[in-house]
Amino acid sequence: MPRALDGVVNKAWRALGSHALLALLWGLHLLPLPLLAGLGRGLGRLLWGLAGGRRRIALRNLSLCFPAWTEAQRLALAREHFQWLGRSLLERGLLWHASPARLRRLIHIEGPASFADTHPGPVMWLAPHFMGLDVAGAAIQLFVARPGCSIYQAQSNPVFDAALKRARLRHGNARIFSRRETARPLMRAIKEGMGFFNLPDMDFGPKDAAFLPFFGVAAATLLAPSRMANLLGMKVQPVIAEMLPGGRGYRVRFFEPWADFPTADAEADTARMNQWIESRIRENPAQYLWVHKRFKTRPPGEAPLY
């Protein structure tokens, strides 16, 4: 789950008590998904009123990315986004605790999910920050034989941190590495045959990044997908998860691996990646992660946008 969403839950854990919220999430996973989805959308409506800081970030992002839209259009999209956000928070309990058999029934796979199992070399799954991001991670563990690894952002709440790690590793075929570690253990795991689940579209500052257009706005974008793919000879396969309306489950799309990625030009590769993510967002804008400060880091001399 994206760091911004982890932060929302982390604050709730501090307010309600870590163990109490953990028990609540366990209990919620027993509900039918249509009922759980309705509760999640209700939570999203509540968060719209209570989470003023996140609401302002979402509206600012939408004004930057969709300047031609009317204010009413952006407001409607932001309200809808918060309802998907509420679902993604409550449905963590389902992803953390439901049986693999139940998750396989709820997750509908499209595209060449088996690519990583037939490709002899290293594979990177490129997963942008949509609300169903954790579903994409679960789908890889449940429907792909090749084990996977990813980078993990440690949480300040130790109980929440332990619960996250336990949930993400519970299927037994994944490893996660702390962002605080060096890249060596991750690189070793990839060389040993693990696929890399890579989240490419967050602002981690200017280090190892370039300011490239994202909806026409300069965004600090990590060059790592192109550079890692070049260094390790990786094939890059995008994966996007969509939460279906009415609690009908989830759709996870495995796209065809990019045939001409990477090239020798990491910045051109990364600009192309941003354009591809933009196109997917325009298909389903309400489920993208608008509560993250995507444009927090500015080029030298530019004023802050938040």
Structure, explained:
This protein is α/β, with parallel strands linked by helices and 306 residues long. It has one domain (3-287). 49% of the residues lie in helices and 16% in strands. Strands 1-9-8-2-5-3-4 form a seven-stranded mixed sheet, sandwiched between helices. A two-stranded antiparallel sheet has the order 6-7. Strand 3 (148-152), helix 10 (158-168) and strand 4 (174-178) form a beta-alpha-beta unit. Helix 3 packs across helix 5 and helix 12 packs across helix 13 (266-283). The model has no long low-confidence stretch (mean pLDDT 93).
Distance between the termini: 23 Å
Helix content: 40-55%
- Structural domain tally: 1
Uncertain spans: none
For the biggest sheet, the summary is: 7 strands, mixed
Mean pLDDT: 93
Strand count: 9
Strand line-up across the major sheet: 1-9-8-2-5-3-4
Overall SS class: alpha/beta
Mind telling me the C-alpha Rg?
19 Å
Form type: globular
Count the helices. How many? 13
Query: What sequence of helices (H) and strands (E) makes up the elements?
Result: HHHHHHHEHEHEHEHEEEHEEH
Concise account of the structure shown:
The protein has helices at residues 3-16, 18-28, 33-50, 52-65, 71-90, 92-97, 100-106, 115-118, 133-143, 158-168, 184-191, 224-232, 266-283, and strands at residues 107-110, 123-126, 148-152, 174-178, 195-198, 209-214, 217-222, 235-243, 250-254.
SSE topology:
Layout: H1 3-16, H2 18-28, H3 33-50, H4 52-65, H5 71-90, H6 92-97, H7 100-106, E1 107-110, H8 115-118, E2 123-126, H9 133-143, E3 148-152, H10 158-168, E4 174-178, H11 184-191, E5 195-198, E6 209-214, E7 217-222, H12 224-232, E8 235-243, E9 250-254, H13 266-283
Parallel strand pairs: 1-9, 2-5, 2-8, 3-4, 3-5
Antiparallel strand pairs: 6-7, 8-9
